Amino acid sequence: KARLYSGMQPSADSLQIGNYIGALMQWRDLQDSYDAFFSVVDLHAITVAQDPKILAEKTRRTAAQYIAAGIKPAKSTLYVQSHVSAHAELAWILSTITGFGEAGRMTQFKDKSQRYGADSTSVGLFTYPVLMAADILLYQANVVPVGDDQKQHVELTRDLAERFNSRFGEAFTVPNAMIQQDTARIYDLQNPTSKMSKSAETDAGVLWLLDEPSKTAKKIMRAVTDNDGVVKYDREEKPGVSNLMVIYAAMTGRQIPAIEDEFAGRGYGDFKKAVAEAVVNEFGPVRENVLELLDDPAELDRVLARNADKAEEVATKTLTDVYDKVGLLRRA
Length: 332
Ligand code: TYM
Hints:
Bound molecules: ligand 1
Shape: globular
Helix content: 40-55%
CATH topology of the largest domain: Rossmann fold
Radius of gyration: 21 Å
Structural class: mainly alpha
Largest sheet: 3 strands, parallel
Number of strands: 5
């Protein structure tokens, strides 16, 4: 079986629907056909300030959301990034073959550093894509299913793998990003031309997986649309309606033209009600599962520990080979 690797940051109490549609739903479907590794990337999360008192809980909650959404921890290797020290170690090695300018061209870094300002931007945020490359390359992943915003980071990963292989000898599989074009970018409900994000400024435009169903429905009913009242897909002219259509399509498995037919001659009120119902139906059981899993944190932690052992075995093999190839003296 080919290897698959992906991860998410535990940067909020809950995942948002972009994470769910753009990543988690694909992971769930792909895990049977691949030897899959899924991490909760806590070392990535601390590249922006996190409250130390709640980070561990957020990490556990993120893992619970993977499982509740259908990732099977007995089959896929679901673990916490910081539990496997090879991630940080390989990131260091890779940082020595990454160009300063090359890292500076990452658009996500440019956006975030602009938002936070130079003084609150850490070097860790700058080297974040190198750590992501380490995640992927340690496991010799063939494919990396992600949303559109991570594409550039996977391209950097490919460049670093090729560079290392040609400079020091074959150590890494060169991975491919796997991006589901129609769902690669879910937009903020209040601001449907910008990406929905866990770090959005206002809560009203973000659909959280663990929100109360009534809150989710309310946010959808209040989503920004337009004035012409026609349920039709048009990214340029009707970004709000188009975004809701993509969400509805993902939740129901229906195609866009079929949705246009379904709501022909009906208003946005009807349409939004249907979207709200579909999302609530999908999220409800996941939310209940999460709450149940969190009832027994010790068991959850044991599952994560077992999987970290599995991950570590693979990662250590790659790291040892890399240390040898770079020429570091082996400890006797
Ligand atoms: P993160 O935590 O920001 O997001 C997790 C996944 O969700 C996708 N995503 C979206 N997809 C569609 N629409 C949206 N609005 C949306 N928002 C987020 C992201 O593309 C991602 O797939 N650096 C990564 C985590 C990471 C990783 C890795 C991923 C670390 N190491 C190795 C893959 C492989 C990140 O911050 O994702």
